[in-house]
Structures are given as C-alpha cells and as structure tokens.
Amino acid sequence: MTVQDSSETEDRKDDHLQIVQNRDVETTGTGFEDIQLVHSALPELDYDAIDLSIDFLGHDLSAPIFIESMTGGHHNTTEINRALARAASKTGIAMGLGSQRAGLELDDERVLESYTIVRDVAPNAFIYGNLGAAQLREYDLEMVERAVEMIDADALAVHLNFLQEAAQPEGDVNARNCLAAIERVSEALSVPIIVKETGNGISGETARTLTAAGVDAIDVAGKGGTTWSGIEAYRAAAANAPRQKRIGTLFREWGIPTAASTIECVREHDCVIASGGVRTGLDVAKAIALGAHAGGLAKPFLKPATDGPDAVIERVEDLIAELRTAMFVTGSGSIDELQQVEYVLQGETRGYVEQRISR
C-alpha cells in the first residue's frame, strides 16, 4: 500500500463519520411495518422476570442487541468507540468495530488506538472485529489473525459492501474470489466468522452459499436504514465525480428489505442477526419472531456515543425496555419463546416473500 493510499483510507473513514452525522443518509422500508405480532391479553408472566439473555457463538449476552459495526480507522473515532465499548460492557450486549483495514495497513498509533481502546475499556464484553471481503482475499491467514489479536476479538465480521464500492470514487469493484477467501478463513481462523452486508440485505441464495462455506453467523444488514451508496454520493459530489454521484443517488434505496432478508436467511442458516433500519426494541422483537437470534443497530448509537457512555447506556436500556414490553404482551418469557410467537405478515413484505418462495 502506498502512502497516498494510506492517507485516503484514513480520510475516507473521517468522511463517512461526518456525513453520517450531518447529512440525510436514511432510507425507509425495512418491512418491519408489515410484521404484526399477535397480542396476548393473558400473558401469565411477571414482567420483571422475563429473560432476555441469549447464547451467541458460545458467549452469554444479557440481551439480543448488537451495537453494529461503525467506527475505527481515524483518531476522531477513538472517543466514540470508548463510549460504545463501555456501554456494551455495562449492559452485557455485543459490539462490532468498523473495518480494521486502516489498523492493519497504516503505521499510526493514533489510528491503532481507535480500535484497541474497545478492549481496554471492555475486557469482558463480546467484541467482534471487521474486515472487508475484498481485503480478506488479499490477506493471508496471519494478517487476518492480526485483526483478531488487535482487539482480542471474540469473532470477526466480514463485510460485503460491493454496491458501496461501485458508488465510491476510489472503490474496489473486483468481487472475484471473495467466496473462496471467506471459506478459507472460516476453516482456519481462531474465532468464528460473521458475514454481514452493509445496508442492502442478503438473499436466501447467498445465505445458502455462505452456509456451505462454513460461516458461523449471517448479519443481513438489509435495506431501510443508513444508505452507504447515498453516503458515497455525497463524497462523490465533493470529489467532483459526477458518474459515481449519479450511481450512488440512483441506488440509494436499492436492496432487500431487512424483514424479508431475515425471513430468507433464517431458512438457510441457524444463526442470523437482523440489522438495517432497526430502530426500536419492538423492531428487535419482530426480527426475533421471524427467526433471528438478535437485532443490531448502528446509527442510533452514534449521537449518544458523542455524548459519552452514559447516553449510550440510556439508549440501550430504552431498547431493552421496549423489547421486554413486546415479550410481555406476546406471552414470551424468554428469547426462545419469542422466536416461536405468532405473527401476521402483511403488505409489500408478504408480496415480496410469497413471490420469492413461489419461484
């Protein structure tokens, strides 16, 4: 990697953070609006005794809520990651990091600290690292293990962000041989592999392929939340790259809605995280009723993280209260029971799913 490439990597991380915080990068249409959980008027439960804990990849979590991969790779993100990690530790939930490429490829202690801070402040939390599938193809196993060791990771997420790359002025649009790289690392890495999208969803066919490749979990990261092609459209406009700006804008709402992607993926893999436009504990409850193990959020934690760990903890506790209430009024005393609760599938999501199943 050249010095120029190194500088671009770090600057891009800062661009992303600033755009997410200050520009309109939200889409709609997760499909959760089409999921109606069946109300239980006689739940026969003690609200305070409802058990939200889960076993995730052999680790005990207090609640099925993930702080999704967001930040790292620029010194501006260090305090944000400190707040997120401390909140994850205090509340017993999982946290993912943003891409660790910069930490592996840049010789900069401040950049490295933006990642290592999470384990420093959260020694016992479930923390998972993050590399792009394209980087996985380029790195040998020793390099990938360095990403794990950097944060003493409990798992490694491999992100699929090829639409984002296509809209990025400096994007890497060679997607060949990434599946083989995922399979190679899944077989040999010291920790489990989570494969995740970045806002466009994962189809049943792709989930089936990933399952055969040996991945341990799938994070659908569907349409309906932050749009990374939209983020790149802002960057392309600033870089005077009109073609990429048009692509980013045109594909701003591209993808498989999160609810539909969750339904498809749970048919193919037994450990699915639902993310992408998840905004409430009720969304998490709906995702689990569809068969997911947990729900993940990213952008909703970003503003609280700039205010410090207490604000993040408050947000997590709000989500837990919302999820517990949804469990109470569906008669679900545990997450296993919530996975079995009755629901009604309506609207566009029903049409989407029925068409996909009928093919």
From TrEMBL:
Belongs to the IPP isomerase type 2 family. Pfam families: FMN_dh. Homooctamer. Dimer of tetramers. It is found in: Cytoplasm. Its EC number is 5.3.3.2. It comes from Halovenus rubra. CDD domains: IDI-2_FMN. It catalyses: isopentenyl diphosphate = dimethylallyl diphosphate. This is Isopentenyl-diphosphate delta-isomerase. GO terms for cellular component: cytoplasm. The keyword Ribosomal protein does not apply. Substrate binds at R12, K13, S99, Q100, R101, Q164. HAMAP family: Idi_2 (MF_00354). Involved in the biosynthesis of isoprenoids. Catalyzes the 1,3-allylic rearrangement of the homoallylic substrate isopentenyl (IPP) to its allylic isomer, dimethylallyl diphosphate (DMAPP). It is an enzyme of class 5 (isomerase). It comes from the Archaea. Residues 29-100, 174-340 form the FMN-dependent dehydrogenase domain. Its cofactor is FMN; NADPH; Mg(2+). GO terms for molecular function: FMN binding; isopentenyl-diphosphate delta-isomerase activity; magnesium ion binding; NADPH binding.
